[in-house]
Design a protein that fits this description.
The complex is a heterodimer of chains A (766) and B (382). Chain A is α/β, with parallel strands linked by helices and 766 residues long. Chain A contains 33 helices and 23 strands. Chain B is built from 13 helices and 12 strands. In chain B, strands 1, 2, 3, 4, 5, 8, 9, 10, 11 and 12 form a 10-stranded mixed beta sheet that branches. In chain B, strands 6-7 form a two-stranded antiparallel ribbon. The chains are: A alpha/beta (766), B alpha+beta (382).
C-alpha cells in the first residue's frame, strides 16, 4: 500500500444506469465484490443486461458473480462498503438528498465519490457534514467504463489526502485507469476540450459545406479519433450534445471561447426530434439502411437533412498529409481549410486552459488520449504544427494568444534520453512515471537496441532482463522474428536473467506474415514455406526450453502465431484487455507453430475433463476449428490459451514492469518445463470428429472448405495414424502439424482464403 | 414347469418426471440415484417382496460415467435391495430398457427366476450423446459409412422417401403435445410418476411438454439437421433426463402374492433394418412380434410407438397402417421427452397400464433403435 492508501475490499454503486452498471461491472472485473443499488428492481435487470451486452462490460463469468443487486430501499446494505460511488441522475437536489441518506448509514471513514460530469464538487458537498466532505471526491469514468481508460479525479481542499491516495492507487493499479487529477472546473478536462472540439468541428463542416464523410476523413490524419467527429457523436448520442453544452454554458466563465463557438444547429435539433439520436436511436449522421437482406450505409446530407448512400471520399489533402499534420493544414483545398480552422481553434482553446483545468500539460494530453481516444493530446499536436505557427495563426484570426503558446516553445523535448515537458514558467522538467510503470518508449529514448533486425529489436530493460519487441508491420511474425528470437534466447542464456516478449503497439501481434506465405505459395516455393513453418516451430521450442525464463506480455490482439508464441513462454503476464486465439482456420490453415500441440497438452492436463483419449482432443478441436478468440485475458484462461497461473495486469502502462517482475521472480533456480507426452485416439477419434463436422456441414453451419480444414485439424489433434497405445512426443505432434499445414497450404481454396483476408481484412467463407 | 410359471406378466410401472436436459429440474441428479428412486417406489407401490428379486436389469444408451459401472448392481445397492438380487446392465441404444423386459421374459420362460426389476435411465445432461470418448472404427466408417449415421439424418431420409412434408410433421408434433398436455391435466400421469428428491426440492412434474405450441410456432424453426431439410427441434424428441421401470414376474408368482397384473407379455421381437432409415425399425419388429403372437394388426387395440421424430413415427404408422387415434393416447416422446435408455420401459409400462385403463385386449409397444433396428412387444390384458 502506497502512502496513506486505505484497503478497499468492498464497493457499492448507487445508480444502475448505463454508467453505474458499467462501473459496477468493471469493479467486479478487478475482483472487487460490489453491491449495485437502484430503484425497485432496476439493478437486477441492469445486471442481466450486463451479462448480454456487447462489447462485454464483464471480463468473465466469475466477475459477474461478484455483483449483488438491491434497491435504494435497503440503503443500509452499503454499511460494509469501503468505497461508495454515486452514479444517479445529474440533479443537484437528488444527489444531495442521497448523500444525506448515505451519510446516515455508511461506515465511518468510507470513501464516497460521485461520477458527476457537470456538477462542481464544492456544490455537491456544500451542505454535508465535515466528515462527509473529508471523505468525498469526484471519480469521473468514461463510457464504457471497462474500455475507456480515463478516470478524472477531483478533490477539494477539505478532502483527506488518504482519499486521493487510495482512489489513485486503486483506480490505477486495480481498475487499470489512467488517473488524471483535475481542478474543480466545468467539464473537468476531457469534456471541456472534447465538447469544444465537437462543436467547432460540426459547425465548421456545416458552414464550409463539407460532407460528414469528408469531415470524418480529415480527422483521420489528425489522429482524433478513428470514428471521426460525426461517427463519435453517433456513438455517444446526438441528444447528449445539447445537454452537455447547456450545462457548460451555465457554468463556464464569461469570457470562455466556448460561448463564441456554440451555436444551436437546426439540423441537429431536428434529428433529435425525429429520433435520429445516433447508434442507440433510429440512426444518426450515419445509419444502416436495411433493404430486404441488403444493408446499405447511409449518411445525412448536412445541407438538406436527407439520408443518402454513404461514399468514401478520396481527399487530396488527406492523401498528401499522410501523417504530417502541417501539410494538411496548409493544403489549399476545402479539406485543408477545414482542418486548419478546427485545429487552430481547438488547440488554442486547450492551450488557454492550463493551469485553469489542470496543473500541467501531460495531464491534458493524457486526458484527451484516454478519454476521447485521440491518438495524441492537444499539446502533442501543437508540437507537430509548431507552437510559433499556431500562435501566429491565432493572432491572425484576431484571437488572444494564450501565454503558453506565446512562449513559442515545444511542449515536449528529449534531453539525454529523458522526456521533458514545458512548465508554466517556461522551464522544462522530466515527465515522471508512477512507481510500477515502465514504458518501452522511455527505454528506447535513452538507449540503443542490444540486437535488431528488420522485424524485431531487443532492449535491455534493466536487472539483466531483455525485452524482445516486434517491429514489423502490424507486428506480424516472419522468419526475421524467428531468427532474432533464437539469437535472443541464446544471448539471454549466456548472460542475462530472462526475456520479456512485449511491444507497445495497439496489438501484440495479428499473427504470421500471410503476405510472405502467399507470395511463396504463388511461386510454388513449397520448401521455403515448409522451412518457415519448421523454423517457427524450432524458434518457439527454443523459447519453451530456454534455460532462463521467457515471459510473454500481450495487450490487444494476439492471434495465430502471436497466440502460439505466448503458449510457449515460461509464463505470461497479460494485459486484461488481451484478445487471443488460434484463428488459422479462418485463412484456411491450422496452427503450425506448436499451437495444436500446446493447447492439446493443456487440456490433457486439465483435471476438470473426463478421462480417456477424447475429451481433451474434442475440447481443443472445438476451440481451434471454430477459431475462438478470447474477449479478455480472463476468458483466455478459460479457453486454455493462458494458464490459470498466468498473471493479469489491469493497467496497460504497468504491463512491462509486471512482466519483468515475473521474470525476476521465476529466475532463481529456474528450470524449463518437462516435455508433454500425448496418448491420442488415432483414426478412431478422427472419424468421430469428422462425423461431427459432416453434421455441421449438413446443417449449413460449415462451408465446404470448413469441412476440409476442420478435418485437417482433427487429423493433427487425434495424432494422425497413431494407435491409442502409442505415446507421442511433442516433436511427433509438431511434425503432424507441419505436414498437415503444408497439405492445406497447397490447397487452392485455402490460398483463396488467405488472399481474401489480405485484400479485404475479412474471412472468405468458401 | 407350468405355463403360469413361465408366462411373464407386468405387475407395475413407474417413472420419474421427464425433464429437459441441462436446464431441467433433474439435470443435477445423478442417473444412478434417479433410477434407484424409481425402483424403490416401484417396489413400494406394487408390494412385491424384494428378497424374491432374481435380477435388476437396467438399460441406458451410453453406459459410462455416472450411468456406467454396471448400473444394475449399483441401483440395487442404492435402492437398498437385498444383496441376493443380482444386477446387470443392457445396451440396445434407445431400445435398452425394452430389451431389459425381454431379457426378464426370456429368463422366466427358461425357468430362471420369478421376479425381475426391468428399467432404464438416461441423464442426457450428465452423459453426453456419443459418450465422453467416442472412438469409432475407421475401417467400418469408410466401408459402411451409414453405420455411424446421425439420428437426425435418418429422419430426414424417411421424410424424403415417404414424402412426409413439414406441415404433416408439425401437425403430428402439435397433436402429441396436445395429448400429453391433456393427459397431464387429466391426471393420467399421476399413477406412473415418482416424485424425485433433488437438492432443489421435490420434482413431481414433467418438464418438456409445450402445451401452447402450434403449427405457426413450429413453422418458424430452422431445420435442425439438414439446411435444406424438414426436420426441426420441434418435430424431434428433445434431449431429456429421466428413468422408468417395470416389474416383471411370472403369472404364478403374481397370483401367489396377490399382485395386480397389468398385462401379459404375449410376444416380443427385435429386427434389423438399414441404418440410414433406422426409424422404420418398428415395422419389421412389430410384424415379427405379431406373427409370433398369432395376431393381425387389426387385433391391436392400442399402440405405444416411440416418437424419436415425427417423420419417423409417421412413416411407421403408414407402413403398419396404424390408426393414429389408437397410437400414443397420452402423447409421445416429442412432447414428453426421450431419455434414451428409459423410453423402452416407459412405453411398455404405459401400454400395459393403458390396457388396464381402456379395457382393450391387445397392445403393441414398439420403437426404433440407432444403427438400424426395431424392437417390439405385444401385451395382452390380464
Amino acid at each position: 500500500m502506497e502512502n496513506g492508501a486505505m484497503d478497499i475490499q468492498r464497493c457499492a454503486v448507487l445508480g444502475a444506469g448505463l454508467m453505474g452498471a458499467g462501473i459496477a461491472a468493471h469493479l467486479a472485473n478487478a475482483g472487487l465484490p460490489v453491491l449495485l443499488l437502484d430503484m425497485e428492481d432496476r439493478a437486477n435487470s441492469a445486471l442481466e443486461k450486463l451479462k448480454k451486452a456487447d462489447p462485454q462490460p464483464l471480463m468473465s463469468t466469475d466477475a459477474a458473480r461478484l455483483i449483488t443487486t438491491g434497491s435504494f430501499d435497503e440503503l443500509e446494505r452499503i454499511a460494509d462498503a469501503d468505497w461508495i460511488i454515486e452514479v444517479i441522475v445529474e440533479d443537484l437536489a437528488a444527489k444531495r438528498a442521497l448523500y444525506d441518506r448515505i451519510d446516515a448509514v455508511r461506515k465511518p471513514g468510507s470513501i464516497v465519490s460521485s461520477n458527476t460530469s457537470t456538477i462542481p464538487l464544492r456544490s455537491l458537498v456544500k451542505k454535508q457534514s465535515a466528515a462527509f466532505q473529508a471523505d468525498f471526491a469526484i471519480t469521473h469514468f468514461f463510457n464504457p467504463p471497462r474500455y475507456m481508460r480515463l478516470l478524472e479525479l477531483v478533490v477539494a481542499p477539505e478532502t483527506r489526502p488518504e482519499v486521493a491516495d487510495t482512489l489513485t492507487a486503486l483506480c490505477d493499479v486495480r481498475l487499470g485507469k489512467g488517473v488524471v487529477r483535475c481542478n474543480d472546473t466545468p467539464g473537468f478536462i476531457a469534456n471541456r476540450i472534447g465538447t469544444y472540439w465537437i462543436t467547432a468541428a460540426v459547425n465548421e463542416a456545416i458552414e464550409r459545406g463539407l460532407t460528414v464523410e469528408e469531415a470524418d476523413a480529415v480527422h483521420r490524419p489528425m489522429g482524433i479519433p478513428k470514428t471521426g467527429v460525426f461517427g463519435l457523436v453517433d456513438l455517444v448520442g446526438l441528444d447528449l450534445m445539447p445537454l452537455v453544452s447547456k450545462s457548460l454554458l451555465t457554468s463556464l466563465p464569461e469570457q470562455d471561447d466556448f460561448r463564441r463557438v456554440f451555436k444551436v444547429q437546426p439540423l441537429l435539433m431536428r434529428m433529435i426530434e425525429q429520433g435520429n439520436t445516433g447508434r442507440k436511436g433510429k440512426g444518426g449522421f450515419y445509419r444502416m439502411d436495411k433493404r430486404g437482406a441488403e444493408r446499405v450505409k447511409q449518411a445525412i446530407d448536412l445541407a438538406t437533412g436527407e439520408y443518402r448512400t454513404s461514399t468514401k471520399p478520396r481527399l487530396e489533402a488527406v492523401d498528401a498529409a499522410r501523417r504530417d499534420l502541417s501539410v494538411l493544414v496548409k493544403h489549399p483545398s476545402p479539406a485543408g481549410g477545414y482542418a486548419k480552422a478546427v485545429l487552430v481553434q481547438v488547440l488554442a482553446y486547450a492551450a488557454s486552459l492550463v493551469p485553469e483545468i489542470a496543473s500541467d500539460i501531460p495531464s491534458v494530453d493524457e486526458a484527451m488520449r484516454l478519454g476521447y481516444a485521440w491518438g495524441q493530446g492537444p499539446f502533442e499536436l501543437i508540437d507537430k504544427l509548431g507552437a510559433g505557427w499556431l500562435a501566429d495563426e491565432v493572432a491572425q484570426a484576431g484571437m488572444a494568444v494564450p501565454p503558453l503558446l506565446a512562449m513559442r516553445k515545444p511542449f515536449y523535448r528529449v534531453e539525454a534520453g529523458q522526456l521533458e515537458c514545458l512548465g508554466l514558467d517556461g522551464a522544462y522538467t522530466a515527465v515522471k512515471r508512477a512507481p510500477g510503470v515502465l514504458l518501452l518508449a522511455d527505454v528506447k529514448r535513452a538507449a540503443k537496441p542490444v540486437l535488431r533486425n528488420g522485424s524485431a529489436a531487443v532492449w535491455d530493460i534493466g536487472d539483466g532482463v531483455l525485452c524482445f519487441e516486434f517491429t514489423s508491420k502490424m507486428n506480424s511474425i516472419d522468419p526475421e522474428i524467428m531468427a532474432l528470437l533464437g539469437k535472443t534466447v541464446a544471448l539471454a542464456a549466456k548472460s542475462h536473467t530472462g526475456v520479456v516478449i512485449y511491444n507497445e503497439g495497439e496489438n501484440f501481434s495479428v499473427g504470421a506474415n500471410l503476405g510472405l506465405a502467399l507470395f511463396a505459395a504463388n511461386v510454388a516455393a513449397w520448401p521455403m514455406i515448409e522451412e518457415m513453418v519448421g523454423g517457427g516451430q524450432a524458434a518457439y521450442k527454443g523459447v519453451k526450453y530456454s534455460p532462463v525464463p521467457v515471459v510473454g506480455a500481450p495487450s490487444g490482439m494476439a492471434l495465430g502465431g502471436g497466440c502460439e508464441i505466448l503458449m510457449h513462454c515460461s509464463a505470461v503476464q497479460a494485459h486484461a484487455e488481451t484478445y487471443t486465439g488460434l484463428v488459422e482456420v479462418g485463412v484456411g490453415l491450422l496452427p503450425g507453430w506448436g499451437g495444436c500441440k500446446e493447447l492439446l497438452a493443456r487440456w490433457q492436463a486439465n483435471p476438470a475433463l473426463p478421462r480417456g483419449p477424447m475429451p481433451a482432443v474434442a475440447k481443443a478441436f472445438e476451440i481451434i476449428s471454430t477459431a475462438q478468440v478470447s474477449k479478455s485475458a480472463a476468458q483466455a484462461q478459460g479457453l486454455g490459451y493462458l494458464r490459470p497461473t498466468d498473471g493479469i495486469t489491469m493497467n496497460r502502462d504497468r504491463l512491462l514492469f509486471d512482466a519483468k517482475a515475473k521474470v525476476l521472480a521465476l529466475a532463481p533456480g529456474y528450470a524449463p518445463p518437462k516435455p508433454a507426452e500425448y496418448r491420442l485416439p488415432g483414426p478412431g477419434g478422427r472419424v468421430a470428429l469428422e462425423l461431427a463436422v459432416d453434421g455441421f456441414a449438413a446443417q449449413g453451419k460449415a462451408t465446404p472448405h470448413d469441412v476440409v480444414v476442420s478435418k485437417a485439424v482433427a487429423r493433427v489433434l487425434t495424432g494422425g495414424d497413431a494407435d491409442a497405445l502409442d505415446t507421442l512426443t511433442e516433436d511427433d505432434v509438431t511434425t503432424l502439424e507441419r505436414t498437415t499445414f503444408m497439405s492445406l497450404m497447397r490447397n487452392p481454396a485455402s490460398l483463396a482464403r488467405t488472399e481474401h483476408m489480405l485484400t479485404t481484412g475479412k474471412p472468405l467463407r468458401n | 414347469m407350468s405355463a403360469s410359471q413361465t408366462q411373464a406378466v407386468i405387475v407395475g410401472f413407474a417413472r420419474s418426471p421427464f425433464t429437459p436436459a441441462n436446464r431441467g429440474a433433474l439435470a443435477r441428479v445423478r442417473p444412478d440415484d434417479l433410477m434407484a428412486q424409481v425402483v424403490r417406489a416401484l417396489l413400494e407401490r406394487t408390494g412385491a417382496k424384494p428378497e424374491d428379486i432374481e435380477d435388476v436389469i437396467i438399460g441406458c444408451a451410453f453406459p459410462e460415467g455416472e450411468q456406467g459401472f454396471n448400473i444394475g448392481r449399483i441401483v440395487g445397492f442404492l435402492a437398498d435391495l437385498p444383496i441376493t438380487a443380482a444386477g446387470t446392465q443392457v445396451n440396445r441404444w434407445c431400445g435398452s430398457s425394452m430389451s431389459a423386459i425381454h431379457m426378464a421374459a426370456g429368463a422366466l420362460s427358461a425357468g430362471a427366476g420369478e421376479l425381475f426389476v426391468c428399467g432404464g435411465v438416461e441423464s442426457m445432461s450428465r452423459v453426453p450423446m456419443l459418450g465422453f470418448n467416442p472412438v469409432l472404427n475407421p475401417k467400418l466408417s469408410k466401408e459402411k459409412p451409414d453405420s455411424y449415421i446421425g439420428m437426425g439424418m435418418t429422419a430426414e431420409n424417411l421424410a424424403e422417401r415417404y414424402q412426409i412434408d413439414r406441415p404433416a410433421q408439425q401437425a403430428f408434433a402439435v397433436e402429441s403435445q396436445r395429448r400429453a398436455a391433456a393427459a397431464a391435466s387429466g391426471g393420467h400421469f399421476a399413477d406412473e410418476i415418482v416424485p424425485i428428491m433433488t437438492k432443489g426440492g421435490l420434482v413431481s412434474e414433467d418438464g418438456c411438454i409445450r402445451a401452447d405450441t402450434s403449427q405457426e410456432a413450429l413453422s418458424t424453426l430452422k431445420p435442425a439437421f439438414l439446411a435444406t431439410g424438414t426436420v426441426t427441434a420441434g418435430t424431434s424428441s428433445p434431449l431429456t433426463d429421466g428413468a422408468a421401470a417395470v416389474l416383471v414376474c411370472s403369472a404364478a408368482y403374481a397370483e401367489k402374492h396377490d399382485l395386480k397384473v397389468l398385462a401379459l407379455v404375449k410376444s416380443m421381437a427385435v429386427a434389423g433394418c438399414a441404418p440410414d432409415v433406422m426409424g422404420i425399425g418398428p415395422v419389421p419388429a412389430a410384424r415379427k412380434a405379431l406373427a409370433r403372437a398369432g395376431l393381425g394388426m387389426d387385433a391391436i387395440d392400442l399402440v405405444e410407438l416411440n416418437e424419436a421424430f415425427a417423420a419417423q413415427a409417421l412413416a411407421v404408422e403408414r407402413d403398419l397402417m396404424l390408426d393414429h387415434a389408437k397410437v400414443n393416447l397420452d402423447g409421445g416422446a416429442i412432447a414428453l421427452g426421450h431419455p434414451l435408455g428409459a423410453s423402452g420401459a416407459r412405453i411398455t409400462g404405459k401400454a400395459a397400464s393403458l390396457l388396464a385403463r381402456t379395457g382393450g385386449r391387445h397392445a403393441l409397444a414398439t420403437m426404433c433403435v440407432g444403427g438400424g433396428q426395431g424392437t417390439a412387444t405385444i401385451l395382452e390384458r390380464a
